[in-house]
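User: What would this chain look like folded?
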Amino acid sequence: MWKATVKGILARKVRLLLTALAVLLGVSFVSGTYVLTDTLDRSFEGLFRQFGSGIDFVVRQQAPFGGDSGRERFDTSVVDTIRTVPGVETANPVLLDYAQFVDRNGDNIQTGGAPTNGISWSQEGRQGPLQLVPDGDRRGRPPNGRHEVAMDASTAREHGFHIGDRVRVLLEGPAEKFRIVGLFTLGTQQEIGAISFAAFDTETAEEVFDAPGLADWVAVTASPGTDLRALRAEIGIAIGPTYDIKTGEVFALDRGDQVLDFLALLTQLLLGFAAIGLVVGAFIIFNTFTILVAQRTRELGLLRAMGASGRQVVVSVIIEAFAVGVVASALGIALGFGLAAGLLAVVNALGRDIPDGGLVLAQRTLLVSLAVGVGVTVAASLLPAIRAARVPPIAAISDVLPGRSRSLRWRVIVGALLVAAGVPALIIGLDRTENALNVVNEIWIVALGAILVFFGAVVLLAAFARPLAAFFGWPLRLMDVTGALARGNAMRNPRRTAGTASALVVGLTLVGLASVFGASAKASVRAAIDAGIRADFVIKAQQFANFSPQVADRLESLPELDAVAPMRFGNVRVSLEEETVMGTRASQFGTVVDLDLSEGRIKDMAIDGVLVHAEAARRYGVGVGDELILQFPLGFQPLRVAGIYEQADFIGLFNIDFVVAKRAYVEGFGTDEQDALIYAEAAGNRGVARLAIERALGNDFPNIDVLSRQEYRVDQQQQVDLVLGVVAALLLLAQIIAVVGIVNTLALSVYERTHEIGLLRAVGMSRRQIRRMVRGESVLIAFIGGLAGAGIGVLWGWAFTAALKTQGITQLRVPSGDLGAFIVLSMLAGVVAALAPAWRASRLDVLRAVTTD
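Assistant: Here's the prediction, encoded as C-alpha cells.
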C-alpha cells in the first residue's frame, strides 16, 4: 500500500499540485501575517524600550480609571522630595506634549498617524533616553534657550534638516521658529520610523506646553550599589499613594501599549482573513479529493480485491493529503516571508518608515503555519477518504462509479436544520443588540446566526444546483450545441457544481457584506451630517489629530462668523460604565448643530448642566432636572440634566451620549486639553467667511483644514472608502483561491470526460467548440457561486447593519450596481479559470481519447 500510495501521488502530481496551490496561498497569508506583525512588534517594542534607557524608576500620577490613560500633570515640588531619599542619584521632571515640525514648503510633516512628540531635555549628560548623534562632521548639543530645539535624527535625515538650520514647530499655539542645535536618537535605536520628536530645554518646554512648574513624570536614577527594590519602597513612602512608581523598562512598555495593542488587533484581523482563505481552500480540497476518489473507483476496488482493508485505503488517501499539506505549507511559509518583506519595503518606500529591527521568523510561525496547512488539508480529505474505504471489490470490474446518483436528502435535512437554527439566533441577537448597554458583548449572537445560515445555505446549494444551472443556463442554449452541453455538464453532478461554486460563495458573501455595510455607513454619514450639522464650516486637523485652542480663539474674533463652537472629547464614567463626553461652548453650540431636543434647552447646561442622548437617559433612568454624577479624571462632578436629545450622531459615524459645557469639561480634565473639531457658522456670505478664516489662520497652523459641510461629508465618506479598499484587497486572496478551485475542478472534469470529449471530437466538434463548452460550464458555475454569495452577503449586511444601529449605522443601503459588478467579475474569473482546462481539452488526441475507459 505504501508503494501504491507513493506511485499514486507521483502519477497525479499535477492535480495534487493544483490542490496544494489553494493551501499554499492560505498558509502564505498566515505566515506572512505573523512575520509582518512579529517584525513590527519587535521593532516598536525595541523603540519604546528606549524610553526607559538609563532610567531606574519613573514616578507618575496615578491613572484615574486604571490602565495608562487620563494621568494628570503634577507639581514639580515632588521632585525635591524624591531627591532627598537616600540612594537617589538624580531625579528630573519630564514633559511630553504635542509638537509637529513644518517642512521647508510650509506643510506640517506627515507621520501617517504616528505620534508627533515634543519632550523636555531634562536628563543630565547621557543618563537618559535622548542620545546626541553627530550630523556629518558636526556635533550637536542639548537645546538651551527659548529659540533652540533638538530634532530626532530620523526626521532630520528624511526631510533634509541639519544642525544650524531653522525650522518651524507647531505647538500649543501658532507655529514658532527654532534653531536646530542637535540631532538625537532614542537610546541605541538609530531608526525610529515615522515618529517624530522635538526636544526643548525644561524652561522652554514648560512655556510652549503651557505647563509652568508641572511634569508628566519624574525620571529617577539610583546611586551605584543601591538596592532598587528597597529604594522603590522608600520613594513610595516619601511621596505618598497618589503617585505610581514603575521601573524604567515597564514604563517604556506602557508608553507603547497603544501601538502594541493595535498590532495585536492587526494580527487578529489579518489572521481572520487568512482563515477565510483557508476555509475556501478546504472547500477545494474536499471537492478535489471527492472527485479523485470517484475517478479512482476501479483502482481502489482492485486494491480491495487484492486484500487491502478499508483502513489501509483511508490511510492511503490521508497520506496523499498529508503530502499535499506539507509541501503547500513549506512553500506557503516561504511565500509569506517574501510577501511580508515586500510589504515592509513598500511601506518604507512610501515614507512610512518602520523602526529598525529586521524580519522576524519565529518558531511559532513555522509550527502554526505547518499545523494549519497540514491540518486543514487532512481534515478536508477525511470524508472522501472514508468514502474511498467503502468502495467494494466488485468495483474493480464495474464501470459504475458508486455514489454518483446518491440522494441529496441528507444534505437538505442538514442544511434546513442549520438555517432553522441560524434564523432564530439572528432574531435574538438583533433584539439583544438593540437594548444592549455594550453592543460588542452581544453582537456575537448575530454573528453566530449569520454563520449558521451561511453553512446551511452552502449545504443546501447542492440540492438547488441542478435547477439553478437549468434556469440560469438557458441563455447558453441560444448558442450552438456547445452551450447546451455546458449547461448539461453543470447539471449532471450537482454535488460537484455546488462544491466548486461554494469556494466563490465564501468570498462573495464577505464582499457582499463589506459592500452593504460600506454603502450603509456612507449613507449614515450623509444622514448624520445633513441632519445634525447646521454649521457652514468644519475646522479640523489633518488625520483627525487634536489642535490648539488658539485656533478657536482667533476665529471667535472674526465678524464674518456668527458662531464658533470648538469641541473636545474625553472618557468619563457614569455608574461605573465608561462613556464618551463632549465639551463645548453652550452659548454657540445650539447655532451650529441640530440635536433634535425632545426636552429641555441647550443653554441651560452653561454652568453645571449636561445634555443626555435619549437612549443614554433611558439606560441610566434620568430626565430633565435630575442629577447625574460623571466621574472625570480629576474627580466626580454632579451635573443637572439640562436636556434630552434624539440626534446622537452630529459628527459622522460617532455617537455622542453626553455633552457638557467647556467649564465643566476643563474642571474635569484639566486645562491642557486640546480641541478636536470646530463648527463655525457664517454671518453672511460663505465665500467671504471662508476667506476670513483662512486669512486668520494664515501660515501659523498648516495642520488645519477648513472644510464646508459638504466637503466634510465627502471627507468622512472617503474614510469609509479607504477601509473598504483595504478589506477588498484582503478578500482578494479568497477570490484567487476560489479561481484556483475552479481551475482544479475543471481540469479533473476534463480528465474524467476524456472518452466523452474524444467522441465529441470524433463526430465533428472542433477544438474551438470544445473550448467554448468548457468555458460555458465554468462561467455558469461561477455565476451560481457569485449569485449565492452576493445574496448571503446582503443578508449578512442587513443583519450587522441592524445590529449596529445604536453605534451610528442608521441607514441600510444595498448597492445593487456594485453587487452586480461583483457577479460579473466572478463570471470573468470563471472565464480565466477555464482557459487552461479548455485548452487541454481541445488538445486531446482523438483516437487515444476515444479508446480511454
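Residues 546-702 form one domain. If you want, I can go into more detail on any region.
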